[in-house]
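ok so heres the complex, two chains, lmk if somethin looks off
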Amino acid sequence: MHGELELSEETRDRMAELRALSDRAEAGDKEARRKLRLMVRASSAEVVGRASDVGRRADRVLASSAAGGDPLAEEALCAKLDLMRAEIAGEDPTPLEVLLTERVVSLWMLTTLLEVLIAGQYRRDAGEGLKRLSPPYLIQQSRILESATRRYFAAIRELARVRKLQGERRSG
Amino acid sequence: MTLERRDGRPYYYRSVRDGDKIRKVYVGAGEKARVSHEEDALRRTGRKARLEREKENLERLEALAAPVLEVSEVAEILARAHLVAAGYHKHKGEYRRARRA
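and the predicted structre for the whole thing:
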């Protein structure tokens, strides 16, 4: 199952290429911008499809962990994620909007799950009284949650930004 | 921590850090030495088990987060590639469309 939650080497290579071309194009390399345009057009839908697939499978794993073995809770969470996807993506989303929506939804699920797991652990440890958690552990755990939360807010901002700029292009 | 025996009688010492040095601090002899030694050993085993549990928990959290973070990175790269390909560039953290000459 682990393989299903990972992007293929091919997709990773393509991402590295897109990143390098974007860097060069932003630095003013016109040829790089031309190549980037072609590559975006050629690979966008496929990459979006693959990444969205991995994202959805990851959502399912997160929902299953959050549900703690309760199938009804797991289904309810998955339904909630579908609803969020539909609401956030809106009508007739572009492939990029689909992926950015998946990113927002997955990160929401991740931050929610991390909060639930961490809060549950604090409650258990407080109940057991003497078993205290080590400071490095608490710090590392907070870092993981903080990093996910930061990315979640960045994902919302990015989707809004792309929509705004796409709107500008359509109207301009 | 060391449990030493002299003339068949146990003497227990704890190792205590004092700056750069480690000092041996006398705890007790006889029954007290035996009980203190066992208590410390239990504490140490408990601490080791707790650290092991914490490590496993962190690995689990990181494994849960990894695929989402990877998809998130792909989305970020692709969004940027789309914008840059469409003629935008980042200026003070905001994307702007390049002026046409």
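quick notes: Helices of chain A lie at 9-26, 30-67, 71-89, 95-128, 135-171. thats all i got rn
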